[in-house]
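So, can you check what follows?
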Amino acid sequence: MKLPAHAPADNGEPGSSLHLGLHVGGDWTVFCHRYPDRTPILGIDTGAASLTLSAREQAVTAGHLEFAHALVQAANDYLLECERLMLEAADTGPDEGPAVAA
């Protein structure tokens, strides 16, 4: 499920920018660093790349919470789709699956 794009801030706050593709293999780590007096940092590490997400400012706003909820929903959709594909592959018999080169 793709959520609608969040409209640019009307309060003069700079918008976000960056496009990044990350193809995850078996060498991954996911983490959330929490601090008592600043915003958390969410991270994904792979063998070749590292990605971190954090709030642009040092205070959490309603917009940050909206983003975090949308991120959780998208991650859940990703999980459900991966589980569906894995179950379909497990249900496919050896004579029914796609050909695999040796």
In short: The mean pLDDT is 84. Helices lie at 62-91. Residues 1 and 77 are 7 Å apart (CA to CA). The two ends are 36 Å apart (CA to CA).
